[in-house]
């Protein structure tokens, strides 16, 4: 029961409190670039979630059974980036074959998942936080769902902004960044709530 409680806290914290986009400001490029249309935002969020889960499943054993055993920790970043790049290439081929419309919609942002610092950040932070394999997978799922939630919320907000009469000095990127900051501030309100629920 205690283990299940820990996993729930890790999951909810990753989605709401430690949201990689809104509190750690990782993965901002696709957050700003692919959030214009809701379907593309959902597609990108799902793709990033899948890559986070797969990357964690592959990098965790590499870290613990190779790098820690052979004292090769200095290769961590390079190896993890190579793993993520390979997984993104596989995902890109699968999307091209099975969902050409989503593949076209994501465009240049799909290969950018390779350089999405949120994916690399999840794999490294799971190790830094001392999570076991199950906790790492739950953390990665939560981070992916948090990324998806941020993308969908921001996409909805951007569609409302497009229909609004925005003052000339704030049009374009300025109002987009202001809206992103408001969503980030809203998510800061979750701080402490998750831990207190299960205290």
Task: Write out key terms for the chains shown.
about 200 residues; mainly alpha; 9 helices; about 0% strand; globular
Which band does the percent of strand residues land in? under 5%
The number of E-state strands comes to 0
Computed structural class: mainly alpha
Helix content: over 70%
Termini separation comes to 13 Å
Q: Main β-sheet: number of strands, strand sense, barrel status?
A: none
Note the total helix count: 9
Topology as H/E string? HHHHHHHHH
Radius of gyration, CA atoms, in whole angstroms: 18 Å
Silhouette = globular
The chain-level mean pLDDT equals 87
Spans with pLDDT under 50 lasting ≥5 residues? none
Explained architecture:
This protein has 199 residues and is mainly α. The chain is 74% helix and 0% strand. 34% of the residues are buried. The model has no long low-confidence stretch (mean pLDDT 87).
């Amino acid at each position: 029961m205690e283990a299940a409680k820990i996993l729930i806290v890790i999951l909810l914290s990753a989605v709401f409190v430690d949201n990689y986009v809104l509190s750690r400001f990782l993965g901002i490029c696709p957050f700003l670039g692919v959030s214009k249309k809701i379907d593309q935002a959902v597609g990108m969020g799902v793709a990033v979630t899948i890559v986070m889960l797969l990357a964690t499943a592959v990098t965790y054993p590499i870290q613990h059974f190779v790098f820690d055993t052979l004292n090769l920790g200095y290769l961590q970043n390079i190896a993890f980036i190579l793993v993520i790049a390979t997984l993104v290439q596989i995902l890109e081929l699968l999307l091209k074959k099975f969902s050409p419309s989503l593949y076209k919609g994501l465009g240049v942002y799909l290969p950018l998942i390779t350089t999405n610092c949120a994916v690399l950040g999840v794999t490294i932070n799971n190790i830094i936080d001392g999570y076991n394999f199950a906790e790492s997978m739950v953390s990665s799922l939560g981070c992916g769902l948090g990324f998806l939630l941020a993308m969908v919320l921001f996409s909805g907000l951007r569609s409302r902004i497009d229909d609004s009469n925005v003052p000339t000095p704030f049009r374009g990127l300025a109002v987009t960044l202001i809206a992103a900051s408001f969503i980030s501030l809203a998510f800061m309100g979750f701080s402490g709530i998750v831990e207190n629920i299960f205290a």
